[in-house]
Every structure is written in structure tokens, then in C-alpha cells.
Amino acid sequence: MTFADPDGDAITLHVIAQDDLDRWLDGQPARVANWVRASGFTARLGGALPVPDDAGGIALALAGYGTAEARARGRFHLAGCAAALPEGVYRLAGLPADRAEEEALGWLLGGYVFDRYADQTRPKARLIAPEGVDAARLEAIAAGEALTRDLINTPASDMGPTDLEAACGALASAHGARMEVIRGEALLDRNFPLIHAVGRAAADAPRLIDITWGDSGPTLTLAGKGVCFDTGGLNLKPGGSMALMKKDMGGAATVLGLAHMIMALDLPLRLRVLIPAVENAVAGNSFRPGDILTARNGKTVEINNTDAEGRLVLADALALGAEDAPDLMVSMATLTGAARVAVGPDLAPYYCDDANVVAALEAGAAEAADPVWRLPFHAPYEAMIEPGIADLDNAPKGGFAGSVTAALFLRRFAGGANYLHFDIYGWNPTPAPARPKGGVGMGARALLAALPRALKL
User: Fold this and answer.
1) Which residue numbers are catalytic?
2) Residues 6+ apart with CB under 8 A from 149
3) Arithmetic mean of pLDDT, 144-158
4) Domain 138-454, CATH 3.40.630.10 — does that match?
């Protein structure tokens, strides 16, 4: 997922909108214009056409850029063209300068394949970075996204808490970061009772992974839900709902991909990454519905559903992060089905009450072609997470506002108003340009673009 060497031979790839095709053809030699017309090329979005030279090679190629209306309904349009082009190195021509960064990144992201378990066909068309685009930055972003996708796509047989720890260790080592891990019974000794309770029934011990990087600048803490597989615990999921639970560590995967981007780009900040890594399994020592657990910050939680475990492990991690009062605290989690019902799989819903962070994130999402949608920390719903018998309820009855109540629950542990929570899906159910079916990062690129404004870097 890198750009091609700009110094070698390249095929010019002309990007042509539908309403500009006739004008472009009028300026071409008859041989080219006749070939394009005979081939039925209409410049529809995603269409591609190589034009041969006299020796049977490729003289040039065309990429359809459709209509403005069609482009407004999606993103990363040239990634679809790349998959349809023959092997070669291509240089773009005719692409509007304000679309260059998005399309170049989309081309890189479209080169991703998950081939750990079976050979996969890799796209053969490579792109020279368009003029004016920061190629190294886009390559770092693509690498972070590839890390996220790889982690989510890997099944729990090879991505349990120990494996997730190893992935964290590799990332920390690559960037000279520091890492501490607290495992098993030591979680109780160090006061992480909720992480321990959720993960204690699994054969692979629960743990808290703590990565730190950077020595100066504002402080950013990222907490990612690392439930490597979620059976639902004693509130066992039905088989259909359990099928994709390898992706329940998608929050951790997205945080780690974002951390790679931050460190690879050497942003001037102090970064902390907290990953509670557990498997929510079933055994004689599973935590139970009706249990009341005490969190790291002293708040008591009544367990009304063991399948609402992600907010529990994040609660201890957020409480730890809040002790250092970072300038910005962010949690990412595949937390609730309610969020998916509300906005579907392509939007990253988020919660934040800091106007500066919200403005920065909305602008960053537009710049990065990484759509987000704000949902409310609706204060009147606070009563829904207060069961009376304990400070908090991990699964309020009634089924209303499930994503909102989960976000309110987490905010009780995150400290001040400088808290941003993403309730992501982490999975692309149908292939799309630059986004093959499978694990996908959501919100990370938007947040990366937002950080200079949000933290005044």
C-alpha cells in the first residue's frame, strides 16, 4: 500500500467526467477517439478503459469520473477504476486538485487484501502520487488502516488477548514507545476489577495494555475496547449474533491503527494508548447477571446483562486514563447494536460536548473522507443508568437509547468535558471502493485530521 516510484515510465490515466467526455475526445487523435467510442466508454463513475498503442501495449488509459451527483453519493471513486485496470504504473491527469488527496488515499486503501489464510488477488495497477500530495503522510495513514483491518479480520483463534498484546508490542517497538502490561490476578492487585471480572472465565488471561509515546506537547489518551471474542457470557448470544464477534476488538484495532498514524507522522504530542484485552467466555467463574461489581474509581455497577461487557472493561481503562487528566480522552468501541440501527455501517457515531473538539472533528471528517455523525450525551437519560441498588446499571431495561446510555455510562469514568467517544461498527458488510468486505477503521482518519485543531498542535 505504497505509491510507485515517480521516476520510472508511467501510463497517463486521464480522469474524465461524463459531461466532459465529448470535449476531451474532440481534442484526441482519430485513432484514440475512435477506439474510445467503439469500446462504449461513457466515463461513468468507476469505469476504466486502456487505449492500445501501435505495438499492442498501453498508450494511455481513461478513468470515468461520472457526474457530480454520482460522486456526491460516495467517495474514493478512482479506487474502483484501479481494480479494473491492467498491470502497470499510472500517473493521473485531469483530476481536480482538491480531489487529489482523497483519490490517492483511496487508491492505496484499495490495494489492501487479507491473505493470511488463503492467497488473494492483489490489484496490479500502481499509482504515482499526484503532484502536491504528501505521499509519506498518505502511506502512513494507509499503513495504519491496514493494521486495523488485519487485526479485525484475524479470527479469535489467532487474535486472543495474548496475540493482541503481541501486536501492541510490535507497534510499540517499531516506534520506540514504552509498554506495560498487567495480566490475570495482578489486575486485582492493581485495582482493575471490571477488566478482571469480564475476562476471568477465559483460558487466555485478561490484561490491560498501556502504551506511552512522546515527551512533550499536549496529552492524548486513546482507549480501545479489546474484547477479542464475545460469547455474551452467561447471557449467551445466539449463534447468528456470535458469528462476527471476532470483530468485537474493533475499537482496540482502530485505536492501534490511529496510534501508528500519529507516531509515524511524529505528531508533537504525548500519546497514551490503553487496551483492556479480554475474552468474554463462559465457565464456572463467569461473572453473573445480578452481580454488583466495584470499578477502579469506586463506583458500583449492577450487572443486568453479561453481554454488555465492553463498557465494563473500558470503564476501568478510562478511570485510569482520567487520573492523569489528559487534554483529550478518546474511547473507541464496537459497543452497541443500537448505534448500527441508528446510522448503519458506514457512519462513525460519536459523542462529545467540547465545542472545539466537535468543530475540529467535523472539519477533519470532511477533509479525510471519513464520515462521522454526532449523537447526544442526553442528560435526562442519566436516570436510566442508575438502578438504585448500585451507582450504575450496565444494561438498562426497556431497550431505549442503547447507544446514548452506554456513552453516558462511560462518561462517568472519563473525567472532564474533554471526552470523545466513538461507538463504531468496525466492519464493512459489502464491498465498496477502497473498502473491501471485512474489518475497517472508522473515525481514525477524521480524528487524525482533527488533532491539530483540537489540541492546537
Assistant:
1) 237, 311
2) 112, 114, 253, 438, 439, 440, 441
3) 98
4) yes
